[in-house]
Write a structure and sequence with these properties.
globular; 17 helices; mainly alpha; about 65% helix; about 0% strand
């Protein structure tokens, strides 16, 4: 069995939310407004420099000017203001207000990472894994993911688990380690980790016995979060009857939802069962798809499918 087709484990360049930071306390001043912020920044206040950079980046109270944002991020970063180091790295990564330079990006991420920023640590890990700004080095990537994972960052826990699940150059495959980190990530609601735990329990990997109930539980948890691989695996389970009783209507629901996210395996299973279903079954399946889609839209959740490029507004440190 090709485990990768069921886990969907991949390493997106930078996933949505990767670089989301914690809120910074506002610069304190008896005055308020952009003028006061500008004055403090020009006096060398690192946090004010950072906040002014954000104002230019987002066009808040000043005309949007990405080059000026980079200028002020740099001033703040040169004073070792961690969030500025992080955002300056992101600017270099995206070529946003400055010429794209992966080498500069990884160096600034490293500076922020050295100060203990788990988001920057994860970013360094991703760049090493992708060979962006540095020679590809899975062992280095794993070390950086571990640093972030030990800070409790679920996405890094899941990424570290992925490396152990498949093995990489310099990192041996280790299903027990993979299970350990996936469990930590899943406990924080990470949907890809939930799906991979489903595979682990289905196949009896990492020191656990094969357990169809546990496998279905984790696949379902991922599917409920709109994870396309989880949805595909739940749909498959209802088709082949190995983890749950055969139910083509439920299978159709979950496979359709996964196929809408361009999941190959789901498309294959869906094409097979369509020809065996009655008009009534298809109609009920469509109703269930619409119901899930409406509820998911109301939850504000987005697809868990990897995103190739980050949204600077969402992914910069605040």
């Amino acid at each position: 069995m090709n485990l990768k087709s069921f886990t969907g484990i991949a390493f997106p360049f930078l996933a949505a939310g990767l670089l989301a930071g914690t809120l910074v306390q506002p610069v304190r001043s008896e005055e308020s407004g952009i003028g006061a912020l500008q004055a403090q920044a020009e006096n060398g206040n690192a946090e004010a420099e950072f906040q002014l950079a954000k104002a230019y980046a987002l066009g808040k109270e000043v005309p949007r000017d990405r080059a000026k944002a980079v200028e002020w991020y740099r001033k703040s970063a040169e004073q070792h203001f961690v969030k500025a180091e992080h955002n300056l790295a992101l600017c270099y990564l995206n070529g946003d207000g400055v010429q794209k330079d992966d080498g500069q990006a990884i160096e600034w991420f490293k500076m922020a990472a050295a100060s203990g920023s788990p988001l920057s640590q994860e970013a360094v890990g991703i760049l090493y894994l992708q060979g962006k700004g540095a020679e590809k080095d899975a062992k280095q990537a794993a070390e950086w993911f571990r640093k972030a994972a030990e800070h409790g960052l679920a996405s890094s826990q899941e990424r570290l688990g992925e490396i152990f699940f498949f093995g990489e150059d310099g990192v041996d495959k280790d299903y027990a380690q993979a299970r350990n980190w996936m469990e930590k990530a899943a406990a924080r609601g990470n949907a890809p980790a939930e799906n991979t735990l489903g595979v682990i329990y289905e196949q009896g990997l990492g020191g656990v016995n094969a357990d169809k109930d546990q496998a279905m539980k984790w696949f379902q948890a991922a599917a409920d979060q709109n994870d396309r691989k989880g949805q595909s695996n739940v749909g498959r389970a209802y088709v082949d009857g190995k983890l749950a009783p055969i139910d083509l209507v439920r299978a159709y629901k979950w496979l359709t939802l996964a196929a809408q996210q361009d999941e190959f395996m789901a498309k294959r299973y869906l094409s097979e069962i369509r020809t065996t279903m009655s008009t009534e079954q298809l109609a009920e399946g469509d109703r269930l798809v619409e119901e899930f889609t409406a509820n998911d839209a109301n939850s504000g959740r987005v697809s868990s499918s990897p995103q190739s490029t980050p949204d600077p507004k969402k992914n910069s440190s605040n």
